[in-house]
């Protein structure tokens, strides 16, 4: 039996179930999120009946599987059985222990379920098109949108409604799509063309940001309820997909602010997942008046400028004391490519 590669290729990932049902695009997205874990012999890996946020697959070594009344068995890395998840579903059906030193990879359960749903949706759309030919470039903006952290948590059930509620509008070169200081009424995606983000005079020393096909803007004002923080001007003729505030709040906003409970954080610790850090995003004066133990103060206004100093291997959990600022911070962190959650109680985190 040949040793498993240090990291899986997308092609190798397709040999594991149910990743073989993913479209190449969504398999690539899942591949980028894989976590690799190593444990010495004798390590308890999973406890029967315990809830897991990830599905685990055995790459190397041997594990014992105790399914209670279902019996016991051993699984070897590289075997046919090792290409199935050790814990299908979110509730572990068996207790699993490392017999030898083992190497695993983990897939976030909810992400996998979303990508499977999107893959099935894509297959449905392709089959419903029949003989119609759709240029790949025409759909590229949507593929890029769905690959972003903003839409990475969108339930498949919302995808149909989202596409149905988008309005498509033409925009001319030089046209101002949104203006600094204006109230936010729509969320926008560039379907075709390019646009430039124009910042207020106080921030003109920052490099100009150019938006291209599949890039989006306008969500921050809809998340925070504040006015537009910048203007967006078309650099060339193009087309925009526009979503009204009410539709954004209904379909997208709930997925922008993923929540986690303290008990879920404790499970992540026990399962050897990535370390987490509590962030309090209120002003320093508010923080000094009282804060959660072990929380670090980083005001939301400083998140973008301090992003380079944050560790991307760390999961950031934002405390809820900041209210809408805490929600905005979670969104900004996820938008910047970090993994971030809002700390909530058991009921809100499960919602």
From TrEMBL:
This is cAMP-binding domain of CRP or a regulatory subunit of cAMP-dependent protein kinases. Residues 272-346 form the Rhodanese domain. The keyword Kinase applies. It comes from the Bacteria. Residues 18-117, 150-255 form the Cyclic nucleotide-binding domain. Residues 69-90 are annotated as: Disordered. SMART domains: cNMP. Keywords: Kinase, Transferase. CDD domains: CAP_ED. The lineage of its organism: Bacteria, Pseudomonadati, Pseudomonadota, Gammaproteobacteria, Pseudomonadales. GO terms for molecular function: kinase activity. Residues 78-90 have a biased composition (Polar residues).
């Amino acid at each position: 039996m040949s040793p498993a590669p240090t990291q899986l290729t997308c092609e190798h990932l397709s040999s594991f179930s149910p990743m073989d049902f993913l479209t190449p695009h969504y398999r690539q997205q899942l591949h980028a999120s894989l976590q690799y874990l190593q444990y010495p012999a004798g390590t308890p890996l999973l406890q029967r009946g315990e809830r897991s946020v990830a599905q685990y697959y055995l790459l190397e070594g041997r594990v014992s599987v105790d399914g209670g009344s279902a019996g016991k068995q051993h699984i070897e890395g590289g075997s046919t059985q090792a290409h199935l998840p050790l814990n299908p579903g979110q509730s572990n059906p068996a207790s699993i222990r490392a017999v030898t030193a083992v190497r695993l990879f983990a897939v976030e359960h909810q992400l996998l379920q979303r990508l499977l749903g999107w893959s099935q949706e894509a297959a449905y759309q392709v089959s419903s098109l029949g003989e119609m030919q759709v240029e790949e470039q025409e759909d590229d903006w949507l593929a890029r949108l769905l690959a972003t952290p903003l839409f990475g948590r969108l339930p498949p059930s919302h995808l149909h409604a989202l596409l149905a509620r988008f309005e498509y509008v033409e925009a001319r070169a030089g046209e101002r799509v949104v203006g600094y200081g204006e109230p936010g009424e729509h969320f926008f995606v560039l379907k075709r063309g390019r646009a430039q983000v124009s910042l207020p005079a106080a921030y003109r020393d920052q490099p100009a940001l150019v938006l291209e096909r599949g890039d989006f803007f306008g969500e921050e004002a809809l998340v925070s309820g504040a006015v537009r923080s910048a203007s967006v001007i078309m650099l060339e003729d193009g087309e925009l997909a526009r979503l009204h505030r009410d539709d954004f709040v209904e379909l997208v906003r709930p997925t922008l602010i993923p929540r986690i409970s303290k008990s879920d954080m404790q499970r992540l610790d026990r399962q050897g997942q990535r370390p987490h850090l509590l962030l309090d995003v209120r002003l320093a004066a508010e923080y000094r008046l009282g804060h959660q133990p072990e929380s670090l103060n980083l005001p939301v206004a400083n998140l973008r400028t301090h992003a380079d100093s944050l560790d991307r291997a760390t999961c950031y959990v934002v405390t809820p004391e900041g209210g809408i600022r805490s929600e905005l911070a979670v969104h900004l962190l996820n938008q910047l490519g970090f993994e971030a959650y809002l700390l909530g109680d058991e009921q809100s985190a499960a919602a």
